[in-house]
């Protein structure tokens, strides 16, 4: 009999509002940064004119079909579903004083439906989107006023859902702002590094204020941060490569350091000094940052390598985010390098560094699924990917890591974040939708659906 996961371990899947809900103008919703990026976070801003369409406008129509989808999640045995609230459903422009009741009511209905199936919601306050009004009228997170708007939004939803939601996350992949400033902090792509760090500072302060507000309003809730789990390896054992790797890992771990330890680390202060970056701060910021998260959540898809040799970087880079590929690993169809053991390493690194509970809130394989003649999808590649990662998660628990749960990314096919692709499917559930918007949106169980159901039912013993 193989080892099982601990009692109380949460099993489920993770979604983001802008990748599933659709209904982009229903229920009083305002326009978000995601609506202005119809080709994904790496596709730039496109002016929306009346009549033009984006695949995200309807997406998989979760806004209207959530009862059917939640029933399917329940059939798989989910005990947790990670969703995000679209800020624009609650504050359409972002700066209103009063929230939009229709938006609040829709999430009430969603959480009630989850409760009926004994599925615990985990809610991200901002998953790769914010009101476009805050970008146009205030310049995004570069403006300190955003802290107040975000705090108002966070307090509104904490108060409204205090009896329904006990697990919260602040900003999705907060460390991605360096690579996708519009998506992360609402800044234009040509902004300076100093602009980005100033905006990130405001976001970190807002994150601390949200932690404080959550603890005040829902004392029995837990609130975590959310990091892109981008573990990097040295390309060689040359000391210069090893040191460059330490520094590279710090560019994303810095966010976790602030959110878990409550202050800027020394290496970051030095980076700012060395690069002439001067942040505008206020005395109260330190107090806000001191409100540290209860747990750390992260996404994990791949690892990459680092070399100190700029010529080699130029020659080898090619993976997403220009990472140097690892010659010892296979890649997905999208060039993301598959590294299950890296997940065990990362879990141990984060546990050793912070000694706070961890939660894997995204992991999965984006692939082109081809239904056979009978319409069945035999996604053995997805089964093997998730199986191998879960085996390593279980090993990490045995290493002593405190792991709260696992929510697979995109348990139902959805619109991909990077380029708004439909054919990059992650789901255990197939959705009949093509890139041109055609398809019936019918849901169909894939082979992985039954496999994941078995994993959950056996508490991981079937891995
Ligand atoms: C993470 C995002 C998700 C999700 C995932 C997969 O970075 O938090 O929103 O989409 O990556 O990426 P993609 O959809 O581009 O395949």
From TrEMBL:
Keywords, alphabetical: Glycosidase, Hydrolase
Name of protein: 6-phospho-beta-glucosidase
GO CC annotations on file: cytosol
Species this protein is from: Enterobacillus tribolii
Biological process, per Gene Ontology: carbohydrate catabolic process
Gene Ontology MF terms: beta-glucosidase activity
Similarity remark: Belongs to the glycosyl hydrolase 1 family.
Pfam families in alphabetical order: Glyco_hydro_1 (PF00232)
């Amino acid at each position: 009999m193989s080892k099982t996961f601990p009692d109380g371990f949460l099993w489920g899947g993770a979604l983001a509002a802008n990748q599933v809900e659709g209904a982009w103008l229903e229920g009083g919703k305002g326009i978000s940064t995601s609506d202005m990026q119809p080709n994904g976070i790496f596709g730039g801003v496109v002016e929306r004119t009346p009549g033009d369409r984006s695949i995200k406008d309807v997406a998989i129509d979760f806004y209207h079909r959530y009862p059917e989808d939640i029933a399917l999640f329940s059939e798989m045995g989910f005990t947790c579903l990670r969703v995000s609230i679209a800020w624009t459903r609650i504050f359409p422009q972002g700066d209103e004083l009063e929230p939009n009741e229709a938006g609040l009511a829709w999430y009430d209905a969603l959480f009630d439906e989850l409760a009926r199936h004994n599925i615990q919601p985990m809610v991200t306050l901002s998953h790769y989107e914010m009101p476009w009004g805050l970008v146009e009228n205030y310049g995004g997170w570069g403006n300190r006023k955003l802290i107040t708007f975000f705090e108002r939004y966070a307090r509104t939803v904490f108060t409204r859902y205090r009896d329904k939601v006990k697990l919260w996350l602040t900003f999705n992949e907060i460390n991605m702002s360096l690579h996708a400033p519009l998506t992360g902090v609402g800044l234009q792509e040509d902004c300076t590094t100093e602009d980005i760090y100033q905006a990130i500072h405001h976001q970190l302060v807002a994150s601390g204020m949200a932690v404080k507000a959550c603890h005040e309003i829902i004392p029995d809730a837990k609130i975590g941060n959310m990091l892109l789990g981008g573990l990097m390896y040295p390309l060689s054992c040359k000391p210069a490569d090893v040191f460059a790797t330490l520094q590279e890992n710090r560019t994303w771990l810095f966010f976790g350091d602030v959110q878990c330890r409550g202050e800027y680390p020394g290496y970051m202060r030095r980076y700012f000094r060395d690069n002439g970056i001067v942040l505008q701060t206020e005395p109260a910021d330190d107090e806000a940052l001191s409100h540290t998260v209860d747990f750390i959540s992260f996404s994990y898809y791949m690892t990459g390598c680092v070399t100190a040799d700029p010529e080699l970087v130029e020659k080898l880079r090619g993976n997403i985010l220009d990472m140097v590929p690892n010659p010892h690993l296979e890649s997905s169809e999208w060039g993301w390098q598959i590294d299950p053991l890296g997940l065990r390493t990362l879990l141990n690194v984060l546990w050793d560094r912070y000694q706070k509970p961890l939660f894997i809130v995204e992991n999965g394989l984006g692939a082109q699924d081809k239904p056979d003649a009978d319409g069945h999808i035999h996604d053995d590649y997805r089964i093997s990917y998730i199986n191998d990662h879960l085996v390593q998660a279980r090993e990490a628990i045995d290493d002593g890591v405190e792991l709260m749960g696992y929510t697979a990314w995109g348990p139902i096919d959805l619109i991909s974040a990077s380029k708004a692709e439909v054919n990059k499917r992650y789901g255990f559930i197939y959705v009949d939708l093509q890139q041109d918007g055609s398809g019936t949106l019918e849901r169909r169980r894939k082979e992985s659906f039954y496999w994941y159901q078995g994993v959950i039912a056996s508490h991981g013993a079937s891995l």
